[in-house]
Design brief:
The complex is a heterodimer of chains A (about 240) and B (about 220).
Chain A (H helix, E strand, L loop, with lengths): L3 E10 L2 E11 L4 E6 L5 H8 L7 E6 L2 E2 L7 H5 L2 E4 L11 H13 L3 H14 L15 H13 L5 E5 L7 H16 L3 E5 L3 H7 L2 E6 L2 E7 H6 L4 H11 L1
Parallel strand pairs in A: 3-8, 3-9, 6-7, 7-8
Antiparallel strand pairs in A: 1-2, 1-4, 4-5, 9-10
Helix pairs in contact in A: 3-4, 3-5, 4-5, 5-6
Chain B lengths: L7 H5 L1 H35 L2 H15 L3 H11 L9 H26 L3 H9 L4 H31 L11 H12 L2 H32 L2
The chains are: A alpha/beta (about 240), B mainly alpha (about 220).
């Protein structure tokens, strides 16, 4: 059984169809890069996986649980699916430690001392151990995003979703975040990442999914798909982003 | 026009004034706590509640904000006994003031809640937090921080407005002033003194609120 299984997913905002029959399965340990023009539905697809976006047709399943089933306990499911956002979304009034330990403490009941150790561990992983007592507004964008990744990791998810996590960063800060991402990938995390970093996708992803007009237009092994696009749409897209 | 101030008789009745001051202070503090609780719960219902709940809260808020406090007070103290609900003056005063402040607090806190970006809520949801946990840990603090100046000035207004409770014979500062006035006939002196007392009280409250902001909110 695949860890993530999308079948014929349809998502509409009023008249506007954003996802038009998307099917995709992701195996445990796979790293999927989702690319495409803005408005192609890639972020929306990602947000369907943890139930942030209700869908109008098809099914989304995670680890055998149907996400779009009204009876599904989304809170429980989301403990296993981490997501990192483009705009970091750290809690501005909480220190780095509290940002990281909030959910382990109140959702999983981890005792405070243990939670602090956990925060230290995940911060070491993203290279920010010394920032444990800082507040988000004292950090650079790249550091904030690394804390957001650490916050997600602290829940020990089985799957991590990354929604254009370097798009809001100054160019010189992109590298440090991608480095952390690679580190997480190396540890065997299953990842779905929406990205504009084609070079990074080629290097880290097992599979690339190209979305166009609400559909999966083309998909396949990363190097092959990016190296020899089959459709003119992907070719056009790649030539636009690579130049 | 000459008037020679004579504060002696008025000062002689200082124990009355002090007693009234204590009740004014008590009423203000209790009402502020209750008003804040009503405000937090009501604003959550108004912004995140089911449609029927939103409507109930909206009706409450608009009814209270568009009728005079003294009418609300009289309804509770003189009206409700006809329906079998009888309160002593202090309790009636506390209820009326809390209901009144609650409505204004809801409206202020609501504005704070609506200013919290949707992305903060999504971040909380994505971490598996329940709606109540999101409200408590993610939303309340930044919302209160944002609305603190408006809220604290509403609280000071409330403290000043407690003077209407003298109308139902609750023995607050203003009521005591009237008693002293009727005994000494030193109207000018009494009301100067009372005005000064309210002024000092208001300034102390503002100082206290500034302190709370500084130590609780400004640091984060």
């Amino acid at each position: 059984m695949s860890l993530v299984e999308l079948k014929n997913v349809v998502k509409r905002y009023g008249e506007n169809t954003v996802l038009n029959g998307v099917s995709l399965s992701v195996e445990k340990g796979e790293i999927i890069a989702i690319i495409g023009r803005s408005g192609s539905g890639k972020s929306t697809m990602l947000r369907c996986v943890n139930g942030l976006e209700p869908i109008q047709g098809g099914t989304v399943a995670f680890d055998g649980t149907v996400v779009n089933d009204p009876a599904t306990d989304l809170r429980k499911l989301r403990q296993h699916v981490g997501i990192v956002f483009q705009s970091f979304n750290l809690f501005p009034h909480l220190s780095v430690e509290k940002n990281i330990t909030l959910a382990p403490k109140v959702v999983k009941g981890v005792p405070p001392a243990e939670a602090r150790t956990l925060a230290e561990a995940v911060l070491r992983k993203v290279g920010l151990a010394e920032k444990i007592d800082a507040y988000p507004d004292q950090l650079s964008g790249g550091q904030q995003q690394r804390v957001a990744i650490a916050r997600s990791l602290a829940m020990q998810p089985q799957l991590m979703l990354f929604d254009e996590i370097t798009s809001a960063l100054d160019p010189e800060l992109v590298g440090e975040v991608l480095k952390v991402l690679e580190e997480v990938a190396r540890e065997g995390m299953t990842m779905m990442l929406v990205t504009h970093e084609i070079g990074f996708a080629r290097k880290v992803a097992n599979r690339v999914v190209f979305m166009h007009e609400g559909k999966i237009w083309e998909e396949g092994p990363a190097a092959e798909t990016l190296g020899r696009p089959h459709t003119p749409e992907l070719e056009t897209f790649l030539s636009a982003v690579l130049h | 026009m000459t008037y020679s101030f004579q504060f002696r008789d008025v000062f002689a009745a200082w124990e009355f004034l002090l007693e009234g001051l204590v009740l004014t202070l008590e009423l203000s503090l209790v009402t502020m706590v209750l008003g804040l609780v009503i405000g937090l719960a009501g604003a959550a219902a108004r912004v995140y509640g089911a449609p029927w709940l939103k409507r109930i809260v909206a009706v409450y808020v608009e009814t209270i904000r568009n009728t005079p406090l003294i009418v609300q007070l009289f309804l509770i103290f003189f009206g409700l006994p006809s329906a079998g609900l009888k309160f002593d003056a202090n309790t009636a005063a506390m209820i009326a003031l809390s209901i009144n402040l609650g409505a204004y607090s809801i409206e202020i806190i609501r504005a704070g809640l609506e200013a919290i970006p949707r992305s903060q809520i999504e971040a909380g949801q994505s971490l598996g937090l329940s709606p109540v946990q999101i409200y408590r840990y993610v939303i309340i603090f930044p919302a209160l921080k944002m609305m603190f100046p408006a809220l604290s000035s509403q609280f000071v207004l409330l403290m000043l407005a407690t003077s209407v409770v003298s109308q139902i014979s609750a023995q607050d500062l203003f009521h005591m002033a009237s008693i002293i006035q009727s005994r000494t006939f030193r109207d000018f002196e009494v009301y100067i003194l009372v005005a000064a007392a309210y002024l000092i009280l208001a300034l102390l409250f503002r100082l206290a609120f500034a302190g709370i902001y500084h130590f609780v909110f400004a640091r984060r």
